[in-house]
Amino acid sequence: MSKRSRRRWRALVVLLVCLAVVTAGAWVASRFIDSSEILVREHCTAIVGTDSFKLAPDQAANAALISAVSLDRGLPARAASIGIATGFQESKLRNIDYGDDAGPDSRGLFQQRPSQGWGSEEQVMDPVYAANRFYQELEELVPDFEDLDITVAAQKVQRSAFPDAYADHEPEGRAYASALTGHSPAALNCVLKSPAEPGDAEAMSAALQDQLSSAQPQVSDDGRTATIPASGTRGWALVQWAVANADQFGITSASFGGQGWVRADHGWAPATGTDGAVMVTFAG
Predict the structure, then answer these.
(1) Residue 11: burial class (beta carbons within 10 Å; 0-12, 13-18, 19+)
(2) Residue 256 — very low, low, confident or very high, per pLDDT cuts 50/70/90?
(3) Distance from CA of residue 147 to its chain's centroid?
(4) Which of 43, 110, 147, 197 is the most exposed, having the fewest neighbouring CB atoms within 10 Å of its CB?
């Protein structure tokens, strides 16, 4: 072999070694990213028709609470749309402990003011109380709310200095209400990282019953599963409530009506054994 050929051979060997090192490094990096879930951006999305609306997991949980309270009061889905749209406008669906210049004592999901008779500060900071109080006013002051635009109905309750602002959130309100009242099956999806701690079935059961008193979750002895008897739209409402609360309670899957949401897969897929009850599993 000539000197030139040997040099070319050595250069080829060096190139192959470098390629192997780069390939191995890329594989290790990809495995690290997969295992650490560093690229997962947690969010929830409600999809109805061609429209989709994204929320952070805590916001989705509050939307689910507002919807569950409307179901608990026996109200139609329109009420949930109004409630969720109002929460969007007033607090971005977060239970905030401060007001603004127009209402310095405003608090909670609906920015209710103790000075205007909405309840004590402690009460309006309780999201379940706040949602019930909102719907109480809606039923009493706006008995024809089903026939009104969402922003008109919301303004009659809230008496805001910006009466048209609620209209900006009507599409999101309708989308989340449609999913969370069960009228749009498997329409709410949450993309979440793996649970950092064991799930808490008992806490989930207590929260659900606080928001929807007629729900009857049955927690297994080992605390790894919960069964919630339900059928029809109520089943779809409950299973999507579980998805919206998956981050808070360490839920890893929830299924009903032939469909199951799987946390690790970041979405819904066909599932078996899901008739007549919502099945929820928790991280161990």
Answers:
(1) exposed
(2) very high
(3) 28
(4) 197
CA–CA distance, 223 with 147 (Å, rounded to integer):
45
- Using only the alpha carbons of the chain, give its radius of gyration: 25
Please, where are the H alpha helices in the chain? Answer: 3-36, 57-72, 77-91, 121-124, 127-141, 150-158, 170-180, 201-211, 232-244, 246-249
Rounded to the nearest 5 degrees, what angle is found at the Cα of 105, between the Cα atoms of 71 and 115?
Answer: 80
Q: How many CB atoms lie within 10 A of CB 23?
A: 10
Tell me the torsion sign for CA atoms 18, 23, 28, 30: positive
Residue with the larger pLDDT of the pair 10 and 105: 105
So what's the pLDDT on residue 2? Answer: 58
Closest listed residue to residue 269, CA positions, set 193, 189, 194 = 189
Task: Please write the tens of the pLDDT for every residue from 12-25.
Answer: 555 555 455 445 44
CB 206 within 8 A of CB 150: no
Amino acid type, 40? V
Q: Which of 45-54, 127-136, 161-170, 269-278 has the highest mean pLDDT?
A: 127-136
CB 236 within 8 A of CB 259: no
Alpha carbon 186 to its chain centroid, in Å, reads 13
The kind and range of the H/E element at 218 are strand 218-219
Residue 241, pLDDT > 80, answer yes
CA distance 278 to 4: 74
